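Worked Example 4.2. Consider the chain below.
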Amino acid sequence: MDSQHIERLQNTPVFGALSADALEFLLARTRLVAVPLGAYFFREGEPARSMFVLEAGRAAVVKGWQGAELLMREFDAGDCFGEMALMDLFPRSASIRALADCSAIELTADDLLRLYEHDLEQFTLVQMNIGREVCRRLRATDELLFRARMGDLADSAPAPFRAT
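Applying the procedure from the previous section yields the following structure tokens:
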């Protein structure tokens, strides 16, 4: 793995502050997945086994509602998704659909276990980073819920999904 790739990953929320050695160790066995425009990384309700760090492309979080898919948010290169899979062991709460040809690193609980056994401090940093990302999203969701209860969702209501 070249130094530019490692540096780029160190600037992502999940891998921030990880050492180059820890990143190389962690990523030695992870899979790089390619998902073409319009295809899904995963679908709502499926068993959750891994999270993804988007390296290239754009993806959308979509949620089913009354027979339609609603766009919840979009992700760009550097963003992660599916991280709840490594924390709560529940089925997927939403679908992730590629808005462009995408490539992403797939990170499983086994990958994290290997890092735990290899370098506890670096494992702890990854876990803290994942926790921080979940907390940021929870704060944003709390704000949306508050605004919905106050009747002020005009700018943030989910829109029907339309692939571009």
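The chain is about 35% helix and 30% strand. The longest strand covers residues 68-76. Compare this with Example 4.1 before moving on.
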